[in-house]
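Incident review: delayed structure delivery

Summary: a single-chain prediction request sat in the queue longer than the usual turnaround. Root cause was a stuck worker, restarted by the on-call engineer. No data loss occurred. The affected request and its eventual output are reproduced below so the record is complete for anyone auditing the incident later.

Affected input:
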Amino acid sequence: MNASSSRAADRATIRQAVWLTVAIWGMDVVFNILPRALGGTMKPTTVVSVLLIAATGLVLSPVVYRMVTWLRRRPAAARYASLLAAAFLGGAVTAIVDLTLGGVLRGLVAPDAKPPTPNDLLFRGVSNLFAYAWMFGLVGALYMMTLAHRALIEHERQLADARTATAQAEAAATEARLAALRYQLNPHFLFNTLNAVSSAVITRRNDEAESMLEKLAEFLRVTLAADPEGLIPLEDELATIQAYLEIESVRFRDRLGVDFSCPDELRGALAPSFILQPLIENAIKHGVSRASGPVTVRLEVARDGDDLVVLVEDDAERSGEPAKGAGVGLKNIRQRLEVLYGPRGVLQTTARERGFLALVRMPLIRSVKPRAARAA
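Output delivered after worker restart:
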């Protein structure tokens, strides 16, 4: 809680204490005068005594409040013992004021009244001591409850602030981790692509290298503009893959075949940006580039209950070399899915005798219509 909020809470607590004090001593006046007034036994001396005691209570109650406030962080035994002592002290002061100043005022309003005997004064003083010690004890206990309620509200507010700060910190950490994972792919992809461009230049395939660089520039313009930790429509992710394949098609020509299958109703499903391209890249790097004949890379999108399932596979024959599935791109995908979806984000890979299969499973989130539907 900041300083201004704390001061506002203090003022609110003091206002509550003031109204509580006025209410208690006001009720004391009403309960002592009203029955006598209704019964026809009201005397001027009674009115003087009741009003004087109420005034004394109003004067002494703030002292009790200050004491309770000062002791609120002390152990419970110390607080209760101090309240008991303050209650009897307040009762004693009230009794003395009633006997001294009250006696003078009662003599003024009823000069013909019979003077009280010593026994009468003793009985009156002891009665007032215990009666108003109880009143001050009640006032102090209500003050304690008011302060405890304020402390509880302040504690709950601090917990809420702490939870908010923790949630913000966790969200910031998650965003930073996702951004780091997302941007990790760019140099990985660039290395592979620029290595292909370099090979084309060395072998004097300049037109091919120039075409690849142009397509690479367009591809990076699109991908770097995407929100690294955001979700995008699946059709946009597929368009990014198509742009990537245009780069690779310059290099592999007829050796690279592509088969995409995605139902129209799933094109608007949301997926993390750049989550599927590394799977295609893995198929090309470890399949197409090392195979002697044509290779088809197939991507299939389907729904399985409340999950979105994407299958990426190739049919490359690797001449006895085992298919690989533990590279940077695949590790990156697993981590991003775990951060975003927890146990519901899964990447499964399977090396087969011919080709390699990767399956991505994530929650199906349908909040965006396919572009074709939006344009209609």
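Verification: The CA atoms of residues 141 and 210 lie 86 Å apart.
Action items: add queue-age alerting; document worker restart procedure.
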